[in-house]
Write a structure and sequence with these properties.
alpha/beta, 9 strands
Length: 241
């Protein structure tokens, strides 16, 4: 049981990534919709997805985390590291283990490596999860979608699937460093190929403190909205400025 220690974690919950993004006016795309997170290689896109997933799991929402380029163990390590950084100092080991188990119960990680990321295989995985396993995802996150390797129409398929159970989709994709956002709302390649399929597009902008989150497109409207949220360079935890 973690009830006695739960209050000790409220500072972490209050400072959660989605709570901060909500205060900036953009908590996420909403049910049945798609958010795209773009940025250069190594900027922290995958860590942001793990942060979104961790927030959801701690709020007792189900997360299906799809990895396209990394083993499941790597994604698990990100969640574990973020959780350990998030929990307050002095929390007992039993309570920390209980929180980790709580996250594990609410999170399912599925690897589609190589050429295995197809509508047929996604459909089979979702049927197994939502049927025999009774796991209906509130958040479906897809890490490292590459429009040069993966069919952009799969995003439409994912959106159709989550609409059946009121979930939302989060996707990361590379936007090359040497392709600046020369026009407000534009997204450089290769992520630009799929930006039109997203309801919200976030750009991760590196700076000295860490990585700043900006909204560059809201539906069909270009934007350059600073959410005043920065992912710490060392911990990847969110801070507000």
């Amino acid at each position: 049981m973690i009830d006695q220690d739960e209050a000790a974690c409220r500072p972490a919950a209050t400072g959660s990534l989605r709570a901060m993004m909500a205060r900036g006016g953009y908590p996420g795309p909403g049910p049945g919709r798609v958010a795209l997170v773009v940025g250069e290689a190594g900027v922290g896109k995958s860590a942001l997805l793990a942060g979104i997933g961790l927030d959801a799991a701690l709020r007792e929402e189900n997360v299906l985390h799809i990895t396209l380029d990394r083993p499941v163990s790597k994604i698990e390590a990100w969640y574990d590291t973020l959780l350990s950084e998030m929990l307050p100092a002095g929390l007992g080991s039993d309570a920390a283990i209980a929180f980790a188990r709580k996250v594990e119960c609410r999170r399912h990680i599925h690897a589609f490596l190589g050429e295995s990321f197809t509508a047929e295989r996604i459909g089979r995985a979702l049927a197994l999860l939502t049927g025999p396993m009774d796991f209906v995802p509130d958040f479906l996150v897809v890490d490292d979608f590459d429009p040069t390797r993966h069919d952009p129409e799969l995003i439409d398929f994912l959106q159709e699937q989550v609409r059946r159970f009121g979930g939302e989709v989060w996707i990361t994709s590379l936007c090359k460093e040497h392709e600046p956002f020369s026009v407000e709302g534009s997204v450089g390649p290769p992520a630009g190929r799929i930006a039109g399929k997203a309801d919200l597009v976030f750009h991760l902008e590196p700076e000295e403190r860490g990585v700043r989150i900006r909204v560059v497109r809201d539906a069909d409207k270009p934007s350059n909205e600073d959410l005043h949220v920065v992912l710490d360079a060392r911990t990847s935890l969110p801070t507000e400025d």
